[in-house]
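task queued by scheduler; priority normal; single chain, no ligands, no partner chains; default sampling; output format set to structure tokens
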Amino acid sequence: MRDRGAATKAWNTPSRIIVSDNARSFSSPGFFTSPDFTKYIFARDFGFAMPPGTTIDGHEFRNEHRVSIAGVSIILDDAKMRKADVEEGTGKTGVTLTTNVDQTNVLGGPSDLWGGTWADTDPNDVDFGCGFSYDYVSGPGGSNAQIDAIECKVTFTLPDGIAMGISSGTVISAAGSGSSWNNPTNTQGTRNKLFATQDLTDTSEFLECSNFAGLSDVTDGATIDGIRVRVRKRMDGPDVKDASIRLGTSTGVFVGNDKADAVTLWPIFSTQGDWVEYGGLADDWSASLTADQVKASTFLVAISAIAASGSHGQVDAVEVTVAFTEVTGDRAVISMMQTVG
């Protein structure tokens, strides 16, 4: 949150903007009357990981919000982007809210830089984001502004030799034994914060995440130089760790090194989970993968966890970025959306 001069309203439970779940942050204390307006509520730390050399093309923020009682008009009066915790560019004004039914307000777009200058590292910073302030417009007292969730979408152009994809298809491997994964399709995309979960009593079977559509931008005949895998995960329990992190060319067919970290505990339970990185843009996992194998819908990341009885490991999404030496100079334009983390 950021002060807005002599604002009369702060925000109660601002962490509720992390996920769309009808648990809302709301302006307080009391209800809106003239001339009330709010401090900024700041959405930041989205968990982006733009590769070096990426060109930022545009920013889009989506606010899911409402007034608590219909008949009162409250406007999203000021939205200002920030980088490195400093205001950047030109602010925007959103819609006027008049109903107690959630509506989504979209500010910005795929080619809208908000009048700012953005480096490839800016979205990766924990203090990259946007502040939002609301003003009372009209109507009787007895209502306040409420926000359920804020999402950020960054559109960017990858440099030559880089492709990126988010898992959109998931299967469960028959390989391995032990605890099974519940709701594996919850790992599709990054916006729903729904988790594939296993109730661990030993080592889990493999959760295989596949169909990384963005990897089709790897050019034919290219040499694979490195593969960076990011997994958004968390644990509900005391002792969940990696058992195995593998690349594969199809279900149950794994290649290259196992990148499991058998020492570090998974991030502790939180609303959003945390991104954990494996490999890198100069690490080919000793997998000897071809461009055709990486581009195939069957290319996968396989995840297995281990813990004592009573712990739960949870995975929200898997992202893969591939560095390659290409034959042509094609570039890929990608949009990545995250909820505030």
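post-processing summary
- The chain has two domains: 10-157, 162-325.
- The CA atoms of residues 107 and 147 lie 15 Å apart.
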